[in-house]
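Run log // design_07
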């Protein structure tokens, strides 16, 4: 990383999030140090921040609509103390859509990494979420993440159509090639047709049912 520094007098970029951070090559994403711990259960950020939530024996995830956790980016200090009560955090999953300009996808990736580094520097265990899209994102979406450790991915909404599944399977293959993870935490379905190959290779696949799936079960019960 070069010696350029952000001006923090008017911190519109939230430079305080990445104070003393190390950066990857390329577009200089903040580097995350992966927790050695594995999640026992997960809870979405919006549920975790509700006044009624008092079950802290979980990891907080952000696999929900961006509108539900944009407030964390806007005012992270307002949520830090409650987040410290949980076992850990899987880094924010700001959306990457195939029809988004690439620079916006890079910015959303940066935002997730920056928040994760700040939470980590405040004593919170972090597992990096990896959000990939088409092949354009492969040039940066794995940067700043340690190899041979644990990563997390979300499948909810990514396996609906044949095209969606194709993009996801390609991205997952590139993830494994680049990061050689020991563990992959999956939020949503982890079908054998997609993850079986990696299970057979000895990668530990840890899957958690999505809130959407749980809600559908409650409705039909």
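design_07 sequence
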């Amino acid at each position: 990383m070069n010696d350029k520094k952000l001006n923090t007098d008017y911190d519109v970029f939230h430079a305080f999030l990445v104070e003393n951070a190390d950066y990857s090559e390329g577009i200089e994403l903040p580097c995350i140090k992966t927790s050695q711990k594995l999640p026992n259960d997960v809870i979405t950020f919006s549920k975790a921040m509700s006044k009624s939530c008092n079950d802290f024996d979980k990891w907080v995830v952000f696999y929900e609509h961006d509108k539900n956790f944009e407030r964390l980016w806007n005012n992270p200090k307002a949520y830090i103390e409650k987040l410290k009560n949980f076992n850990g955090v899987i880094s924010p999953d700001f959306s990457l859509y195939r029809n988004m300009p690439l620079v916006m996808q890079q910015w959303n990736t940066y935002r997730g990494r920056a928040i994760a580094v700040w939470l980590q520097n405040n004593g919170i265990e972090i597992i990096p979420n990896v959000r990939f899209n088409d092949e354009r994102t492969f040039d940066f979406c794995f940067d700043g993440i340690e190899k041979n450790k644990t990563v997390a991915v979300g499948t909810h909404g990514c396996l609906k159509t044949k095209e969606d599944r194709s993009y996801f399977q390609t991205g997952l293959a590139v993830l494994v090639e680049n990061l050689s993870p020991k563990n992959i935490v999956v939020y949503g379905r982890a079908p054998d047709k997609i993850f079986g190959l990696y299970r057979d290779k000895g990668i530990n696949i840890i899957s958690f049912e999505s809130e959407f799936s749980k809600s559908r079960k409650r409705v039909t019960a």
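The chain has seven helices and seven strands.
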